[in-house]
Design goal:
about 450 residues; alpha+beta; Pdz3 Domain; 3 domains; four-stranded antiparallel β-sheet; 12 helices; 18 strands; about 45% helix; Peptidase_M50; metal ion binding; metalloprotease; Zinc metalloprotease; metalloendopeptidase activity
C-alpha cells in the first residue's frame, strides 16, 4: 500500500509538471486551454479558473492531459478562432508540444540541484582489496588508498565514484585517478574496461577493487515473494546465525557464502523473537550461476562508523552546473539503454512497468527525502525522453510531423496523420504490455 501511495504521488507530480509545461507555453502563445486534467476518467474535483480553463482531478491517476481549443475536435466560435491550437504558426505549435518534455527535464535539473545543495551522505571510497592482474592492479592501486577524484572531479563517496566510473566505462577510456594515503595525494592512470549498462552491477569487480565496508549485522528486511528465502520460511526481522554449523557474524559473510553455493542445500540457524530456529535453504542460481536467495538486509540495523562517513555537497551556485551535468549524463544513459534494447546489446529485462516504478517509489521513500527526490528526477528524465521519441501519439511524434510540415511547406495529409497515430498507439500499447509482463515475471521470481 505504501508503494502504491508514493507511486501515485510521484506520477501525479510529474504529470502536473509535464502538462503545466504545455499549458504555460500555450497560454503565452495565446491558445485557449479548455481543461487541465490530472488523471483520467470520472471527475473527483474541478475548478473553473478565471482564464476559462477547467482544472480537474480525475479518478485514474495514471497520466493527465491539457485540452486546447481546436477546430479539428469541435466547432469554434468566430471570435475565438485566433485562440485555437490548429491555427497557430508552426513555431508556436512546436514550442507548445516541446514544452512538456522540457518541463520534465528542467524539473530534473532542479531536483538534482536540491540534492547537491542538501548533500548526499555516503561512505568514503577507500580501497579494501585489489584483484591481481586487474586494471586496478595495473594502475598500481593498493589497499588503504582513498580515491578522491576522477579526472579532476571530486569523488567523496563510493556512489559518486561508481557514477563517474560507470559513465566513463561505456567508452572504455584511460582516466586519471587522484588517490590519498597518509595525507599524500598521487595521480594514477587507470584504463577502464569497456562495459555496457548490463555490466553496472559488476563494475567494481571488472575494475578489480572492493571498497571498505563496515560489517553489517545479518538481520533481514524485505523477502521477495516465491524466492528461496520465502520457501525456506525466512521472515523480515530474522537474524542469520550460522550455516552448516559455521557461525557467520556479518551480512557480507552471508552474501559470499550464498553466492558461492548456488543450488546447494544449507542447514541454517536463525534468531527469531529471541528463539533459535533451524531451517534449510537452497540458493537459486542466477543467469551467471551466482547463488541468490531473494532477501535484503535491514540497513537500519547498523550505523556507518564516523571515520568512513562522507558527503557529496555543493554550494548553491556550484550546484547549478553539476545539476545540469547530472541531468545530461542520466539522459544519455537512458538513451543508450533504449538504443541498446533496440539493437540487442542491452537486455530488455531492464524495462520496468508501473509495478516496478511503484516498488522503486516505495523503496526510495523509505530511504529518505534525498533518495525519493533522486527517484523523481530519474523518472522525470525518463518521462521527458520517452515523450520526445519520434513515435506518433507522443510529443516527439507530433514534432516529427511538424518537421515534415516544415519541409513540405504544408501539413501532412490528415489520412497519413491518422494512420501514424494508429501505429503509434499500437507501439505504445505493445511497450506497455511488454513492460507489465516484465513486472509480473519479476514478482513471480
Amino acid at each position: 500500500m505504501q508503494s502504491l501511495i508514493f507511486f501515485i504521488i510521484a506520477l501525479s507530480l510529474l504529470v502536473v509538471i509535464h502538462e503545466f509545461g504545455h499549458y504555460w507555453v500555450a497560454r503565452r502563445c495565446g491558445v485557449k486551454v479548455l481543461r487541465f486534467s490530472v488523471g483520467f476518467g470520472q471527475k473527483l474535483w474541478s475548478k473553473q479558473l478565471k482564464n476559462g480553463t477547467e482544472f480537474v482531478i480525475a479518478a485514474l491517476p495514471l497520466g493527465g492531459y491539457v485540452k486546447m481549443l481546436d477546430e479539428r475536435e469541435a466547432p469554434v466560435a468566430e471570435n475565438e478562432l485566433e485562440q485555437t491550437f490548429n491555427r497557430q504558426p508552426l513555431r508556436n505549435r512546436v514550442a507548445i508540444v516541446s514544452a512538456g518534455p522540457i518541463a520534465n527535464l528542467l524539473f530534473a535539473v532542479f531536483a538534482y540541484w536540491m540534492i547537491m545543495v542538501i548533500g548526499v551522505p555516503g561512505m568514503k571510497p577507500i580501497i579494501a582489496e585489489v584483484t591481481a592482474n586487474s586494471p586496478a592492479a595495473a594502475a598500481q592501486l593498493y589497499a588503504g588508498e582513498e580515491i578522491i577524484a576522477v579526472n579532476g572531479k571530486a569523488t567523496p563517496t563510493v556512489n559518486s565514484l561508481f557514477q563517474q566510473w560507470l559513465r566513463l566505462a561505456q567508452s572504455g577510456e584511460t582516466i586519471t585517478l587522484t588517490t590519498r594515503s597518509a595525507d599524500v595525494e598521487t595521480n594514477k592512470q587507470l584504463t577502464l574496461p569497456k562495459l555496457g549498462l548490463d555490466d553496472a552491477g559488476s563494475l567494481f569487480n571488472q575494475i578489480g577493487i572492493t571498497t571498505v565496508q563496515p560489517e553489517m549485522p545479518p538481520v533481514l528486511d524485505n523477502i521477495v515473494a516465491d524466492s528461496p528465502a520465502e520457501k525456506a520460511g525466512l521472515q523480515a526481522g530474522d537474524e542469520l546465525i550460522s550455516a552448516d554449523g559455521k557461525t557467520l557474524s556479518s551480512w557480507q559473510a552471508w552474501v559470499s557464502l550464498i553466492q558461492s553455493n548456488a543450488d546447494t542445500a544449507m542447514n541454517i540457524e536463525i534468531l527469531r523473537n529471541g528463539e533459535i530456529q533451524q531451517l534449510v535453504i537452497t540458493p537459486a542460481a542466477d543467469e551467471n550461476g551466482v547463488g541468490r536467495i531473494g532477501a535484503a538486509v535491514n540497513t537500519d540495523a547498523y550505523e556507518i562508523p564516523a571515520e568512513l562517513r562522507s558527503e557529496l555537497r555543493y554550494g548553491p551556485l556550484a550546484a547549478i552546473p553539476q545539476a545540469f551535468t547530472q541531468t545530461w549524463q542520466f539522459s544519455v544513459t537512458t538513451l543508450s539503454g533504449l538504443w541498446g534494447m533496440l539493437v540487442g546489446t542491452v537486455s530488455s529485462d531492464n524495462l520496468g512497468g508501473p509495478i516496478a516504478i511503484a516498488q522503486f517509489a516505495g523503496d526510495s521513500a523509505q530511504q529518505g527525502l534525498i533518495a525519493f527526490i533522486s527517484f523523481l528526477a530519474m523518472i522525470s528524465i525518463s518521462l521527458g525522453i520517452l515523450n520526445l521519441l519520434p513515435v506518433p501519439v507522443l510529443d516527439g511524434g507530433h514534432l516529427l510531423m511538424y518537421f515534415f510540415e516544415w519541409i513540405r511547406g504544408k501539413p501532412l495529409p490528415e489520412s497519413v496523420q491518422i494512420q501514424g497515430q494508429k501505429i503509434g498507439l499500437f507501439l505504445i500499447l505493445l511497450l506497455m504490455v511488454f513492460a507489465f509482463t516484465n513486472d509480473i515475471v519479476r514478482l513471480i521470481g
